[in-house]
C-alpha cells in the first residue's frame, strides 16, 4: 500500500504533468519550464508517473511557475496585457500592509483596477453569513486553457488569503464553466469544494473570515520559496527576469503566429523603452538578437526532430524568407543540414 506522502507526491505530479502537457500542446516550451526550475530530466521522462525524480517542494515550484507561463499564454491569446513582475510586488505590498482580510481584499480590488485589469478584476460582496469574491478575467476562446487558468487563479487567491491569515479559508470555489469541463481535471483534491456550471466565477467563504487579522509581512513573503517564484516577486527591473519573459514572449509569438517579434514590439510587451530593454538584456549577459536566435534554434530543432513537416513549411513557420535561409542557419547551429539531422535523430531499428 502507498504511504500518504507517496499518494500526495503522485497527486501533485499529475497536477504538474497536466499543466506541462497543456503548455506544450498550445505551442509553449514545457522543457524550458523544467529547466527554469533547475530540472534537467527530459520532458517525456518527467511526465512518466513511474519515473518521479523530484520531491514535493520541487513539484510545487514547477507547478507554480508553469501556472504563470500558462497564464501568460492565455493573456496573449485573449489580447490582454500581460501582468508584470512589478504588479506582483504591488499586489503583495497591498495585502501584507492591511490589518484584516477584509481590508486586504478591498485594497486588492482597487489595485486590480489601477493596473488596468492585467490580473483581472475582483468584487467582494457579503450575503448573510457568506462572503463572495467574484473574479473576472479575459477569455481566449480556448476552453481548456481558459478553464485551467481560471481554476489556478482561484486556487492562487485562496492559498494567498489562507496564508495571509494563517487559517485555511475553506469554502467553495465556483467556476462559470460547464460540468463537462471536469474532463480537464485529473483529481478532485482541492482546498475548497469545487462547483462547476455556476452563474459566475467566485470564491465563497465564511463572512467571519474577513475580520481575521493579517499575520504575514512582506518579509515573510520574500522568504517563502514557493511564493517567490509563483508570484514573480523579482523586482520588475531584474535583468534575469526580463530576459526570461523576453524569451518566453518571443517563443510564444513564433510558435503561435509564425513571426519574430521586433525589438519595439518586445519592449512594448514588457512595458520598457527599447534602450532600457537593451541595457537589461546586456546586464543579464545576452542581447535581443542572441535571444531571438536561441528561440529560433530551439523551435527549429524541435520541429525537425519531432515532426514530419517539410523543411519549406518549417522555414515559413520560423519566419525565414526561404528554405535556403533555414538550411544555412540550421547548419550553423548543428553542423548538419536539417534533413540529415532529422535522419540522424531517428531511432535505429533493433536487430530481430
Strand and helix layout:
Elements: H1 4-25, H2 30-36, H3 43-47, H4 56-78, H5 85-96, H6 101-114, E1 121-127, E2 130-136, H7 143-165, E3 172-174, E4 193-195, E5 202-206, H8 218-223, H9 225-230, H10 239-257, H11 263-269, H12 274-283, H13 288-306, H14 311-317, H15 323-334, H16 338-345
**Major sheet characteristics:** 5 strands, mixed
Rg is 22 Å
Q: Based on DSSP secondary structure assignment, what is the total number of beta strands?
A: 5
Order of helices and strands: HHHHHHEEHEEEHHHHHHHHH
GO molecular function, one term: DNA-binding transcription factor activity
Domain HTH araC/xylS-type: 244-344
Protein name: AraC family transcriptional regulator
Keywords: DNA-binding, Transcription, Transcription regulation
General description of the model:
The chain is an alpha+beta fold and 352 residues long. The protein has 3 domains: 1-79, no CATH class; 81-229, no CATH class; 239-344, Orthogonal Bundle (Arc Repressor Mutant, subunit A), CATH 1.10.10. 57% of the residues lie in helices and 7% in strands. The protein contains 16 helices and 5 strands. It has a 5-stranded mixed beta sheet. Strand 1 and strand 2 form a beta hairpin. Helix 10 (239-257) packs across helix 13 and helix 14 (311-317) packs across helix 15 (323-334). The longest helix has 23 residues, at 56-78. It starts with a helix and ends in a 7-residue tail after the last helix. The model is unreliable at 227-235 and 348-352 (pLDDT under 50).
